[in-house]
């Protein structure tokens, strides 16, 4: 299984974002130099049915992309939460996955006291799980 | 009109990895047509067979979403920056 490395503070911040938005789904980017997660970018879920679906605010995404462009960074992962289902891509997630280079990270709050975090690649409709490695110190 | 077009990672396979390319035209649609001549595939990734902007693609002229301007018919000027962003959505 390929690894997905994530600094522990970023993983914690992502889980906190999911808790703060509950029962709505949260979403955001994990960004950094190619292939390396350094920072979290929270995005607002603007889908009209935010408990069941997510769509990131286009204006916030534009600002995030401008910043990445200037720093030569990229969207290393796209994350969102599931509040009623496991941390596994839904059929909608698979259908709408646009980025074969990014990891798709899911945080499930199906059991709110025990958040579950898993990472995947979604390539042309196929789901491949990545092994999440949480690192104490950011590189 | 010469404009800069910023490509998202998912479209850089059409631009040999370049994160920005130069295009020309008097509207956003003409710029996309122009890019497709040199980078075949760009148009299909952005515009539907019916000639509309794809539902899950957002395009910006400088800082404005072109859906709130004139969509693909939005006029462009020398030095403008067009950014193409894939929507981020799921369930
Ligand atoms: Zn989902």
3D structure, described in words:
The complex is a heterodimer of chains A (139) and B (91). Chain A has 3 helices and 8 strands, in the order E-H-E-E-E-H-E-H-E-E-E. Chain A has helices at residues 8-21, 58-71, 91-96, and strands at 3-7, 27-32, 39-43, 54-55, 74-82, 103-108, 116-123, 126-135. Chain A has a 7-stranded mixed β-sheet. In chain A, strand 2 and strand 3 (39-43) form a beta hairpin. The model of chain A has no long low-confidence stretch (mean pLDDT 95). Chain B has one domain (2-86): Roll (Ubiquitin-like (UB roll)), CATH 3.10.20. Helix content of chain B is 18%, strand content 27%. Chain B has helices at 28-38, 42-46; strands at 2-6, 20-24, 57-61, 64-65, 81-86, 89-90. Chain B has a 5-stranded mixed β-sheet, covered by helices on one side. In chain B, a hairpin with a 2-residue loop joins strand 3 (57-61) and strand 4 (64-65). Chain B starts with a strand and ends with a strand. Strand 4 of chain A pairs antiparallel with strand 6 (89-90) of chain B, so a sheet runs across the interface. The complex binds zinc ion (ZN). Zinc ion (ZN) is lined by residues 80, 82, 90, 93 of chain A. Residues 80, 82, 90, 93 of chain A line the site of zinc ion.
The order of strands across the largest sheet of chain A is: 1-8-7-6-5-2-3
CATH architectural label of chain A: 3-Layer(aba) Sandwich
What CATH first level of chain B would be assigned?
Alpha Beta
Which spans of chain B have pLDDT < 50 for at least 5 consecutive residues? none
Assembly state of the chains shown: heterodimer
Proportion of residues in helical segments of chain B: 10-25%
* Percentage of residues in strands of chain B: 25-35%
Uncertain runs of chain A with pLDDT below 50, 5 residues or more? none
Taken together, the total number of domains of chain B comes to 1
Classification by helices and strands of chain B: alpha+beta
How many strand segments of chain B?
Answer: 6
Using the CA coordinates, give the radius of gyration of chain B.
12 Å
The radius of gyration over CA of chain A amounts to: 14 Å
Rounded to the nearest angstrom, the distance between the terminal CA atoms of chain A is 22 Å
Percent strand of chain A = 35-45%
Mean of residue pLDDT values of chain B: 96
What is the number of beta strands of chain A? Answer: 8
Task: Give the strand order, joined by hyphens, for the main sheet of chain B.
Answer: 2-1-5-3-4
